[in-house]
UniProtKB/TrEMBL annotation:
It is found in: Cell envelope. It comes from the Bacteria. Residues 296-430, 449-589 form the Cytochrome c domain. Keywords: Heme, Iron, Metal-binding, Oxidoreductase, Peroxidase, Signal. This is Cytochrome-c peroxidase. GO terms for molecular function: cytochrome-c peroxidase activity; electron transfer activity; heme binding; metal ion binding. Gene3D superfamilies: Cytochrome c-like domain, M75 peptidase, HXXE motif.
Amino acid sequence: MKLKYSIFLLILLSLFFSSCEDKAFEKNIKQELLVDLTKLKNEIILLQEVIATDGSQKEILNQFKKARLQYKRIEWAVEYFVPETARFMNGPALDEMELEENKFFVPNGFQVIEEHIYPEYSSKNKKEIIRELDILLSNAKQVEATFEAITISNDYVLDAVQQNVHRILTLGITGFDSPILNSSIAETKQSIIIIPELLLIIQPNSKTLQEIKQIASKAKAYCDANSNFNTFNRAEFITEYLNPLSRKLNLFQKEEKIPAVERNRALKATAATLFDENAFDVNGFVASNEYKYSEEKALLGEKLFYDKSLSKDGSRSCASCHNSEKAFTDGLKTNISLKGKNLNRNTPTLTYASFQNAQFWDMRQLDLEKQSVDVIENVDEMHGSLATIHSKISSDNEYIQLFRKAYPKSDKTEAWQIQNAISSYVRSLNSFDSRFDSYMRGNKEAINTEEIQGMNLFMGKAKCATCHFTPLFNGTVPPNFAKTEHEVVGTPEDATGKCLSKDEGRYIFNQLSQLKGAFKTPTLRNVAVTAPYMHNGAYMTLEEVVEFYDLGGGTGLGLTVENQTLPTDKLNLTAAEKKALVAFMKTLTDKKYD
């Protein structure tokens, strides 16, 4: 009897402790976030104390890195749920523009502090740094208040975590948010190891979670073994760890029947990786549903694109300046007017133009529809009239049939449809079938050793990817891919580099001093066939372009560029590295142009 009682007692005790273990896993993601946020605030306060008590530069740097690593544990949530505040916690050390109101906000946060403490810390900046840390602490408290107030459901957690993997790939390992210290690899490790911890809270018994744990553990070990920023093999890290991790997250979501978050953005919420053939949606930047892409619209738009009657004198079509054989450029240094006069700007490629929220070098139009009518009615380019074109087309039987197929709900042809159809054709010019794409989808033979070296340089030492973001390779900022950036690089008037280009770029339309000489960051896809380069066609070869950036842009040439956003330090690339960098850029060419 005593034996039976003892066994029964053991079973009860076992069930009790088992229950306690289960409850240990019953954590709340919000609670975990708030705990980590408290730790971040404490690390910021400790950094303030080290600076206030005149700690050594080594002590300051160590504490700064601790604070940054703690931020990386919650970055996935801060960037997702409080993006406006995140910009002033860990955004670039550049003024934030509000062009609609014609004003700007000075930057704050970790990257501003980083510039104050490295490579040389001066106690003269003590008050300024402590003030910046006060602002950082205040922003952390604002984030805390938001986290306490909102509901954080599993679908948003999965979406935020997947976006953070994309952030690691496009911004983290490229040094985007650690441009001086180059502490990106250690921070990448911290961003990855939090992922299985979060999923454990959602579903601890998932088989896929165990696989995610293994990938995260191996990724951590890889970062530990390869901590040098310049020699880190990003090509291997992406294909062996980040892409598999991204796919497993997508699988975890499906297995647990967690719905994808609906959103209208260029990157589809259902994309398993950034490099899926259909990862990006051309409707990401359309003005409204009626403007959405269809093959029928693109077919109509193609006919309009090659129709010379759109110009006033019938001598020029869109294709006259955007040659399909040259990836829809013209091969000229700058465009030529209807009267044969050289214009100021180079004709940009139309391929992948649909993945930007601003058009033209000066970004004066927000979408392709406005861009098309701007060109058609421009006196120097086509000198046409949308009203006249509409009148002609409305009486053309062939066009009428095409319009009916493209816009079946419309009783008659309307002027906006002309713009939309041309824009729809432009939206069809994205293949995503370059050798680079093939490599990222698992074909290891698609690019060679030198090209892989070039990719690692592009995303690392050469810092190209901090402006030309992977995988669009333009200025549309990941992981949201919702905003397109401009840069001031100090482009010279010509290849001699003796004087600065007189073109003031965005400043012409937005009178802020920071925008003098600012131009849209164009895509580098198909760059091998779209020479000449820069907004004014200053350089004929990619080798010349690489040399310009290696020197530090216009400032590196000895020109005065007070508002240059491009880092002015020399990259110190070797001849072999420059050659590899060019070789990599050539892998971005779509099959039809290769």
